[in-house]
Design goal:
Number of domains: 1
Shape: globular
CATH class: Alpha Beta
Number of strands: 5
Order of helices and strands: HEHEHEHHEHEH
Radius of gyration: 19 Å
CATH architecture: Alpha-Beta Barrel
Largest sheet: 5 strands, parallel
Strand order of the largest sheet: 1-2-3-4-5
Distance between the termini: 37 Å
CATH topology: TIM Barrel
Structural class: alpha/beta
CATH superfamily: Aldolase class I
Helix content: 25-40%
Strand content: 15-25%
Length: 187
């Protein structure tokens, strides 16, 4: 986001005076001026929430993140291997470390695990909830089920061959079959 666009945004927020501003889109923690943006929004009187993948939060100081009242961290897998499969990067430990880092703040923000349910994790909801609790998240939210697209490093993406997408002839390896048995059919 350019300086000109940020200045426009600050002006609109100052006129509108929303009770909360949610920073999201792409990865806000990659913005080179995130701490400045957070301080400016704090000065305008809005509560600040952040949606992030959680991989870069430890690159900031506690003071940089202090004004943020809630942090929503993408949490689509309960362990390292499934995280790597779903997210396409070996970042489970960094994400978990970010939760610990936020918890260590003098006044930690609310930390919410934000899970997009999709083909590779919908059968693991109990594990997602248990791991979120173990890692120290304050809450977990589930976004709509996505069981049909090639998003999240699934079939048809760069990290999966079409052979990965073919169901086994006995149906045992087909997550959709297991999911339907456990939760009913998704449309």
């Amino acid at each position: 986001m350019s300086d000109r666009l940020l200045a426009e945004l600050y002006g609109e927020i100052e006129r509108w005076r929303p009770s909360q501003v949610l920073l999201s889109g792409g990865e806000p923690a990659m913005h080179p001026r995130l701490p400045d943006v957070v301080r400016r929004l704090e000065a305008l009187g809005s509560r600040i929430a952040l949606i992030t993948n959680g991989l870069l939060l430890k690159s900031f100081s506690h003071e940089d993140l202090r004004p943020i009242s809630e942090v929503y961290i993408s949490f689509d897998a309960p362990d390292r291997e499934s995280y790597k499969t779903i997210r396409g990067v070996d970042g489970f430990a960094r994400m978990a470390g970010s939760v610990e880092f936020l918890k260590s703040m003098a006044v930690p923000p609310g930390i919410v695990a934000r899970s997009t349910l999709q083909r590779d994790n919908v059968a693991n909801i109990p594990e997602l909830v248990g791991t979120a609790r173990t890692l120290g998240f304050d809450a977990i939210s589930f976004l709509g089920v996505d069981v049909s697209t090639s998003a999240f490093s699934r079939c048809g993406s760069e990290t999966h061959s079409t052979a990965d997408c073919r169901p086994r002839s006995d149906g045992a390896g087909d997550r959709r079959t297991r999911t339907r048995k456990r939760f009913g059919k998704f449309h």
